[in-house]
Write a structure and sequence with these properties.
The chain has about 300 residues and is mostly helical. It has helices at about 1-25, 40-45, 50-70, 75, 80-90, 95-100, 105-115, 125-175, 185-235, 240-250, and strands at about 25, 35. Strands 1-2 form a two-stranded antiparallel sheet. Strand 1 and strand 2 form a beta hairpin.
Amino acid sequence: MRKQAAALAALMAVVAIAVPAALAQPVAPAAGAGAGSLWNVLWKGMEWPAVFILAGSFAAIALIVEHFITIRRPTIMPAEQVQKARKQIERRQFRECLESLRSSSTMFAQVMSAALNHARHGFDAMHEAASEKAGELSGQMFRKVEYLNILGNLGPLMGLLGTVYGMIIAFSKLGEGGGEAGAGELARGISLALVNTLLGLILAVVGLGFFGVCRNRVDALTVRTSVQVLDLLEYFRPGGLAPAARSLAAPAPAPRPPLPPATLTRPPTPPGGHRASAPAANPSPAAQPGLHPAPPAQPGRGGA
């Protein structure tokens, strides 16, 4: 940003030196005419449309100078102020941080103050308040830069107005002379037309050129300021950056030992010290009540 400002200042210095030198260069005199300079030609060719063009030129220069004085990083988002606010928030010195920001007129201080004023309503309210305040302040800066766009667009129109005025004068002189007006009278009208056109184009080039530069500077600075404020507001998010930083700094928990394998346990012994045995799968007939085994067969007797 500082390099851009230095380059623009150097460009303006070169223009301020080169333009008067070019205007002071003598113009080749015509036959029967005295020597003069381009500055004298412009001065003689100015009419009332050129007054508005010059007024717009002075206004554009004032806006450009005011922009490069007020719209700078030290006046929008000082690095020292951002670091101080971060340290105070990390130390939980919220009241001291709010008081120090209220005493400053920078964009960062105003946006951060608006967010801290809504701290009692929660993180979402703080985020919304910061976004609204940032949009309001950036809109004010953009509206001020927009005047350069207006002046740049009006410059060619005012030049065209002078062109039409000069042509009207030239053709009116031609009509008054019955179509045989003198060359001097025609040259006067054409000179008025061209001089005002030239002044209008100069205003358009300067106004529109610096409008683009200033608009980009405002956009870059306001976006950076909003990013810094939203980054600091993450400390107030439930489960946000502060708890995450503490959890990342804490050592990893030790792994839990594996559970022992499951073992079969024997059923408890009943009172009396005897354990009931499981019934046999195929009990013998004698063991079953009501069943008796048949007696063995007797060998046969003879003669029976």
